[in-house]
Amino acid sequence: xFITRSLLPLLLAILSGRDKAQxxxxxxxEVWGSDQSNSVRDVASPGVQGSxxxxxxxxxxxxxxxxxxxxxPLSCTPNEETGPCNLLDIFPDSLTQYDQDGNVLGTxxxxxxxxxxxxxxIADPYNRYVTANIFTPSGGYVGVIDTETKGAIGLFRVxxxxxxxxQRSVHMSIWTEDGSAIIVANLHGKMIERINVERNGNxxxxxxxxxxxxxxxxxxxxxxxxxxxxxxxxxxxxxxxLIGEVIGSYDDADTDDLTPAxxxxxxxxxxxSDNQGGVRTNNVPICPITSLSNNGYITMGSGGLFxxxxxxxxxxxxxxxxxxxVNGAGCGGAEANGRMFLNGGAxxxxxxxxxxxxxxxxxxxARYQLGAAPVQNLPSPIQVFKDPTNTNTIGNVDNVASxxxxxxxxxxxxxxxxxGAEITVDGKYIHVAxxxxxxxxxxxTVSLExxxxxxxxSLTGKTGRAGxxxxxxxxxxxxxxxxxxxxxxxxxxxxTPDGKYLMVALRGPKPxxxxxxxxxxxxxxxxxxxxxxxxxxxxxxxxxxxxxxDTVPVGTITGGHDYVGAERSDVHGAIVVTRGRENGQSD
Length: 587
Hints:
By secondary structure, the chain is mainly beta.
């Protein structure tokens, strides 16, 4: 059978200790880090042209941790022996863009000033493919990459709407738990879109990709389509043809202003009242998270939440919450013991510079049913944790302060920003990162108790800056004496199949996105050793990334340090792709 990312914890939970060891021993892996910086010199703006994808295998990582040479990144093209992989090589500029009817619209090379900022890659349940989420504002690209060959197999551009002046962008996408679809967050288009995935038998090989416009759900108000979705054809770096097509029509999508409960999806629509649990003021979808029962949890920048039934066409709203019930701006979630956990953090916009947010919610996934009578803000979410210092922003009304002006420098800031979450392989604990405070909060997935806080700056994970330093210090940028070192700035992360490590994206001194909360000193992927049976951890290594090709000006880093050095690498997301016995297959 296949061991999927979601099923692996369940499998390990029922095996004996000896069997667990045998399964884990058979699963080698790769770590994929998404570097948002430009892969082209002399570009005026950050994250708009190209990117780098860093891939390390578990054997070289093990060698580094044992004191050997630094792990060497893998190549993604036939002409290079080592990485990192240039996004512009994975998706060549010769690729041809087609509309739904097959009319040629030009080439990717005609659009390269809008093709960059690799915000994250997400693995499918079989660990055979990843989505590539290319977040250039007004770009709107989502690609699919084969994890074996490292070659592209598909590329799409999402629909453009008048919901926002930028019209479209892909913040993140995620696979359904059976791998039959890709759910895409079209942030500036204010839509959730779907790519149908056709596979060849039980091997998991993708044979077709269909961007289904009729499956879309528009979350804004006053829908106005500017341009439909498109797809790209032509040869990848290995000479293989891309696959894909666009089907359906936005005329058949859910583009209404109102939810099934009869209220405005986004506040201020002309045909209904606002949600009783707080006005959803700006429904830019952030991070869709899918459950085992094919539900999709859609967090939004200004707060509020939609729960969608993903296998319906169009996808159906089966739950909705106002922003006072579910605060923004969550990007981090995972499922365990029948509960979906979602976090809430600071806004990515400039308004987030004075926000402080660390919140965790839990939702009973089985309570959302297609066909049930639509009710606002029910079933009630469980507020697992809300930091008492949270600012009353992006929907929060439970605390005191309206702003926090302490910036993001590790020596002085008191701000918090929850971003990224992962479940241990036995399903017992969820680890949630704080991007500003450089800590992980750990919660029991059954009792919902907060059981630990550990730091990423000390050797033990327990002494903060008072004790010997963790691995970030030795890997910190050295070309600006004023930049505070040992500042990991953890972002999105994943767990290794043996349960030993969390692989954590670490941000750089010139963050491409959320610069008011994400400046770090040791860009790359942090290796966090999980300790105390899953309740604790410590940063034991850094897979260091570097980009001095990008010469984009640093500008002002709000609340941080206006870095003057040459490093531009900025890894926003890290995932683990299981290899083992043939791409995650088990005997």
